[in-house]
Amino acid sequence: MQQTTTTTVSREEGIVHSKGYAAKEPKTALEPFEFERRPVGDNDVLINIKYCGVCHSDIHTARSEWRGTKYPVVPGHEIVGEIVQVGKSVSKFKVGDRAGVGCMVDSCKKCDHCLAGQEEQCSRTVWTYNSPEGHIGGNTYGGYSSNIVVDENFALRISPDVDLASAAPLLCAGITTYSPLRRWKVGPGMKVGIVGLGGLGHMAVKLAHSMGAHVTVFTTSPSKKEDARRLGADDVVVSSDKAGMDMHAAKLDFVLDTVSANHDIDTYLSLLKHGGAMVIVGLPTSPHTVAAESLVHWRRILAGSVIGGIKETQEMLDYCAQNGVSSDIELIPIQRINEAFERTVKGDVKYRFVIDMSSLGK
Ligand code: NAP
Ligand code: ZN
Ligand code: ZN
After folding, report:
1. Which of 121, 179, 200, 278 has the most ligand 1 atoms within 8 A of CB, as the residue to mutate?
2. What is the dihedral of CA 22, 24, 28, 34, to 10 degrees?
3. Which residue puts its alpha carbon closest to atom 34 of ligand 1?
């Protein structure tokens, strides 16, 4: 019989008890960890987490590959579940609704970025994990856990008609790829390259295809060729195939680089036409080098992008529900999280691990 998670709220202080998995040091396995969340404030909702996606950023952070991780860290920012409590001023949700939480749980709400719906650009963004938590001090804890307390403005609505587990990765992988595709007006008549077919990459292929672009996938993994086409690619090139790469040189309008490891970006810049743009969303641990000549002579544009604002994330979730776009997932119990980390690093996941939080038990 499948177990379900329960959320216990202490009546005296309103403190919410949570259980999950945490990394306690950069090089040790994640392990069970119990902790407390802040009481549900007037503008907060309490979400019982049902599923949480495993993003490569969780791995970078758990292992302090970007440095600055504060331990223990509970990763997870592709959170979906059900509202079980609402604060008295909450208007967007009621108990029983589905809800999601992505990479942010708060921001200043007053600066130009926040007012423009770009909370991810605010200097006071509170990230879902490993971020100073303004309300009670200490650091935020993410979604590899039984529940989360969050300001309703940072919770997203999820259609009751979609499969909840496959919607989880949209909260990070979905918005991180949707936002630059929209900003660069990807659509019919455009030739688009997606570099790396992992969690972000496979969402980028599905989204760019659904927007009507001609999509070519560039992968280091010959074993992913068939999948790339099934996911919506018109063409697939294994990047070690020099002749294949040469055939696409200077042919693309737009390239999205989703690679998690250090790699040579000039190879992919050279795929752009005159004036074409390449956007980097992958966050390897070492800086990239770039040949200025490739940018200067060809007027190529090199840009970056980080997730997307709350309004755009809701727009993306609604777009995905309306257009039948969701993630290809491998559902795992939380007890297999360390194996999932290892397999993700090897590129051995089709195409996103999602943790079934009922495996936490009571
Ligand atoms: P992922 O599932 O592990 O996918 C990364 C893919 O990169 C792999 O599947 C692999 O695809 C390719 N790759 C791996 N090593 C490579 C290498 N040495 N050379 C070339 N390609 C290689 O990771 P993810 O969750 O999609 O995240 C990707 C990156 O984006 C991470 O660095 C993550 O931290 C970052 N990220 C950024 C944002 C943002 O807002 N900008 C948001 C989320 C994540 P192939 O097998 O097809 O080659
Ligand atoms: Zn992420
Ligand atoms: Zn702000």
Report:
1. 200
2. -40
3. 57
Q: Report in angstroms the alpha-carbon separations of 180 from 26, 102, 138.
A: 31, 17, 33
**pLDDT, tens only, 45-82:** 999 999 999 999 999 999 999 998 999 999 999 999 99
pTM of the model: 0.96
| Domains in the chain, CATH or no CATH each | 8-172+328-361 (3.90.180.10), 173-304 (3.40.50.720)
Q: What angle do CA 46, 51, 55 make, to 5 degrees?
A: 110
Does position 7 have pLDDT exceeding 80, yes or no? no
The candidate with the shortest Cα–Cα distance to 189, out of 273, 259, 312, 269, is: 273
| Ligand 1 atom with the shortest distance to the CA of 120 | 40
Determine the distance separating the centroid of ligand 3 and the alpha carbon of 236, expressed in angstroms: 41
Enumerate residues 6+ apart whose C-beta is below 8 A from 164. Answer: 50, 51, 80, 98, 158
47 CA distance to ligand 3 middle (Å): 24
Lookup: tokens for 132: 């100073």
| DSSP for residue 121 | G
| Atom nearest to 201 CA in ligand 1 | 26
Distance of CA 306 to the CA centre of its chain: 10
